[in-house]
Write a structure and sequence with these properties.
The structure is a homodimer of 343-residue chains. Chain A is an alpha/beta fold. Chain A has helices spanning 20-27, 31-39, 46-59, 65-72, 91-103, 120-129, 144-152, 176-189, 203-218, 235-248, 260-272, 306-321; strands spanning 77-82, 107-112, 134-138, 157-160, 170-173, 195-200, 225-229, 254-257, 282-287, 300-303, 330-332, 336-338. In chain A, the strands form 2 sheets. In chain A, strands 2-1-3-4-5-11 form a 6-stranded parallel β-sheet, with helices on both faces. Chain A has a 6-stranded mixed β-sheet with strand order 7-6-8-9-10-12, sandwiched between helices. In chain A, α7 links the parallel β3 and β4 (157-160). Chain B binds a DNA duplex (16 and 16 nucleotides) through α2 and α4.
Chain lengths: 343, 343
DNA sequence: GTGAAAGCGCTAACAA
DNA sequence: TTGTTAGCGCTTTCAC
């Protein structure tokens, strides 16, 4: 065998894609210099920058972020976990999050935790395995142990859409109890006295409703009728709930619904029965989705700024990833009752 | 200097996380054997499998998929691009896609192409940089060049929600022209003759409407009035559209809407004007969203099986990624008109 | 069935 | 400012 044949016996073929090496060779610099030209352009001379930039556009080079992430321990990937994306509630938050992250060069990975509790572990493994720079929990991650596992992996966690004094890490949300109390006071202030609530059976909605009920009693009104429907809430369950309510408590003059979709169902059922809203029945929704303002009658609803939640969550994670100190780890985004025709 | 001090002068600290090396050491095997125990358990002895499994659970090892993807050229990541996630249309598809992929050990990365055309390039770079095993285009990726760039990168592409004889790669959808024609025939068959259409100004909706108009004329009816509203369509634009329609063409006795949300707007406006549906005006929606069946009157709508689209797209990509031949690259998922009370 | 070596494509650490 | 070297953690290739 020819000893001058230094060609290694085994070769692995790469992807065939253009690599930083190719770009560097074309630009006549070392790979690390090309890397710097792309990532920290201020650290290279204008001449080098120009040559590398040109080499990139000539070759159509796209950096391999798997490799970059592996080497730098920064994946520029952020995971978001929602119960299910087909519920409209968190959509705006996820949308704002995606956009805010994209602007800063981060990408969103989406996971659904809602179905199959036993698969939540698998979801977490899939997430942790990607070494994301952060995780945004939107809605519930069921097991406490799971959430701690994220922290143990050293991944920044942002909990959203809720407010607890003891967040795992960072948090942006609002007080569900305050919402319930505020709606009770609002309806009382409008002269309603026979109140009821229709609520999906998820934890946060239940907390809103408990506070609602407690506040109504504190105000000296009769204890509200509470109707639970399965989550996710739908227009159909709203219709059924009103039917049930009217047969059990026909005196009811106001309903607080745990979602705008439920409220739309209540409005629909009321309309189909010729029940005047708001004259005979006031209806308040939650979420203030796009369509709320344009319903007939226009729906009074609790407005949550889902957009701001998403943006703040992105800010939290990017700050952490880039080593900036996060001074305020809890942000209360608040809420407001948007008064329209239905109440 | 002590020559026996073989400690390298420079050290980079890893993430500190448990690695395959740690697991292998604990199990008393070589790293590659541990790798095989995890990925292709049939290739190792039961004894080794047992020891590795135990070592994994003792250490809480979570494989680093960035490293795995880099080495194997398979990221187990799939990108989905939608115009915007807050439109309800593609949600079911994305949800089914996410679930079907998760089942097979793949993760979804979500990108929004809807805003800022000039940022579409950036989105594509972000996607390609992650070396996904496939991309699902749901809705439009605007530039033809962009789509070809994906192919050039060797990434399998599935186009959805449409049908063209010349897909880029793989495709699962239905014919928008057929939908338009079918709705025209349907309304004609119900004795309606003064037809109109309310349509978002996106390309697919326009194709449905063009075919609708053409078919109506072919059937010998007067040319339908066509009202365009900006995409994304909303309840509010549906209300405005009906108002406009009634002032311009008060004889109209049937409206085909390009989305259920528009149809809900039309129903709402009709109700607020005391216009009887379906007696005076028949309304047909598109999408058959969850709420359609429970509206009052229940909405007749074109049903698209978004779930099946998502599942088929996942199947396409996973088959490709795992080297299985894809025999049928175009799948027509069809559609149906669900007859309810509104038409 | 198991293992040693090499390398996926990139960047941190150090040196000049 | 630029370059050299040594990995990041995993899997492929080849050998036993």
């Amino acid at each position: 065998m020819d000893p001058s044949d230094t060609r290694p016996a085994r070769r692995r073929r790469g992807s065939g894609a253009v690599t930083l090496h190719d770009v560097a060779r074309l630009a006549g610099v070392a790979p690390i210099t090309a890397s710097r030209a792309l990532n920290t352009p201020t650290q290279v001379s204008p001449d080098v920058l120009q040559r590398v930039t040109e080499a990139v556009s000539r070759t159509g080079y796209v950096p391999n972020r798997l490799a970059g992430g592996l080497a730098s321990l920064r994946s520029r990937l952020v995971a978001a976990v929602v119960p299910t994306i087909s519920g409209p509630v968190f959509l705006q938050t996820v949308q704002a999050l995606t956009a805010a992250l994209a602007e800063r060069g981060y990408q969103l990975m989406l996971g659904q935790s809602g179905y199959a509790l036993e698969r939540e572990d698998a979801l977490l493994e899939a997430i942790i395995g990607r070494r994301p720079d952060g995780i945004v929990l939107t809605g519930i991650l069921h097991s406490d142990q799971g959430r701690r596992r994220l922290l143990a992996a050293g991944i920044p966690v942002v909990e959203t859409w809720d407010l607890t004094p003891t967040p795992l890490d960072m948090l942006v949300g609002f007080s569900h109890a305050d919402v319930g109390r505020a709606v009770a006071a609002y309806l009382h202030g409008r002269g309603r006295s026979r109140l009821a609530a229709v609520s999906g059976d998820d934890e946060r909605a239940s907390r809103r409703m408990q506070a609602f009920v407690a506040e109504v009693e504190r105000l000296g009104l009769p204890r509200p009728v509470l109707i639970q429907v399965p989550a996710p809430t739908t227009l159909a369950s709203g219709r059924r709930a009103l039917a049930e309510l009217l047969s059990g408590a026909p005196q009811t003059d106001a309903v607080f619904c745990s979602s705008d979709l439920l409220a739309l169902g209540v409005l629909t059922e009321a309309q189909s029965r010729g029940l005047a809203v708001p004259r005979r029945l006031a209806v308040v929704g939650f979420g203030d989705l796009d369509f709320a303002a344009d319903l007939h009658p226009a729906l009074t609803s609790v407005h949550i700024d889902g957009d701001a939640i998403g943006r703040q969550a992105a800010q939290f994670i990017v700050d952490r990833a880039e080593g900036r100190p996060v001074k305020q780890r809890i942000v209360d985004i608040g809420f407001s009752i948007v008064e329209r025709d239905s109440a």
